[in-house]
Amino acid sequence: MQLTRSQAGSFAAAGSLGVLLLAGALARGQTNPAASPPASAANTLPTEVSLAIRHGPFLQAPSESGITISWATTRKCVSRVEYRPESSGRWLTNIPAHHGLVDADVTRHNVSLTGLQPGTRYVYRVVSREIAEFKPYKVTYGETVASPEHHFTTLDARKRVTAFVVVNDRHEEVAPLTA
Predict the structure, then answer these.
(1) Is residue 178 part of a domain?
(2) Which end of the chain is more exposed for a tag (fewer CB within 10 A), N or C?
(3) Is 134 left (phi over 0), alpha (psi -120 to 50) or beta?
């Protein structure tokens, strides 16, 4: 499938959301992902989407003592990362919070792990629990979904060489990369 320059440009201008929309359109085989759904589809009720991890988990901002783990779910959830040094059997948990409030009722999840040891291999998994109903003083939970276990190694300044991949959306501003 090929997109016209204007279609590709409209997705690039939308940033990360555009990339996710484009990926979804390509997966569905849509030739014009920017077009609205057919009239028959527009009049139907959406089918119930089961709770799942839609994208990720993927790693961001690696350092000697920390890393951020990000993922997206199909429904609003409260989430956490369970992790441990590979050499340990004891799991640790990090639940993201800002200003004293747990990050909840969201579909995009970002959890920063800090206080890690340099050059250490860690095992982690992400866990998201659906929020079925979110009312003052009462939260009703639904299903829970968890990723398989994954691994990462924190950076180590003592090592001569470190390798990793960087994926970045610079749109059409490539001059800083060239410099």
Answers:
(1) no
(2) C
(3) beta
**Domain match, 138 and 60 both:** yes
Task: Kindly indicate the confidence band of residue 166, based on its pLDDT and cuts at 50, 70 and 90.
Answer: confident
The answer to whether residues 31 and 66 belong to one domain is no
pTM, entire model: 0.67
Q: Under a CB-based contact definition with an 8 Å cutoff, are residues 161 and 153 in contact? A: no
Question: For residues 76 and 54, what is the distance between their CA atoms, to the nearest angstrom?
Answer: 12
Assess whether 97 and 15 both reside in one domain: no
What does the block give as tokens for 57?
């988990």
Does 59 map to a domain? yes
Q: How far apart are CA 46 and CA 24, in angstroms?
A: 16
Q: How do residues 54-83 score in pLDDT, each as one tens digit?
A: 999 999 999 999 999 999 999 999 999 999
Question: Facing residues of 93 across strands?
Answer: 82
Say whether both 102 and 15 belong to one domain. no
Domain presence at residue 116: yes
Amino acid at 22: L
If asked whether residues 78 and 140 sit together in one domain, one would say yes
